[in-house]
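Pasting as-is:
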Amino acid sequence: MVLEGLGAEERLAYVLHDLFGLPPDETARVTGGSPGDAARLARRVRERIRGGGAARADGGPGRRRAVVGRFLAAARARDARALAAVLAPDVVAYSERGPVHGAPAVAEAAVAFARLAGVARPALVDGSVGLVAFLAGAPVSAVAFTLRHDRIAVLDITTGEERVRALELAFSED
């Protein structure tokens, strides 16, 4: 029913990106937008399917930052157990390579993020709490988190300087 209520562009971006696993570049080529737009459309549909963004607002700002801080600390330590503890059991990580399902698989994949964790900063990524990693002063990777009950339920991962720059990024002063 949710898919029927979507516009054609949203439905197409969601089906191509999430269901068929097409990277944002290829999805954008079909939809006629940019890779950032295609990823944003798919993310917006995912939020509607999961309850209209309510999970994104789970907990206050301090609690959301604490969850992201625990994720970042575990990634920097390359501690898959600590990563799994901050992830919801049914977590899904979406990236250009396609979705990864479940806390054990996402935790293992996140350990690979450790090389960028040392250069990552907390940020709002398209309005969601997240992280942005920089190399030589350029943003090269961004992760937007959806939280549920103080755990990470969804990770939306964007890589590549051009794609990351296309996102709406906001950094706090603290």
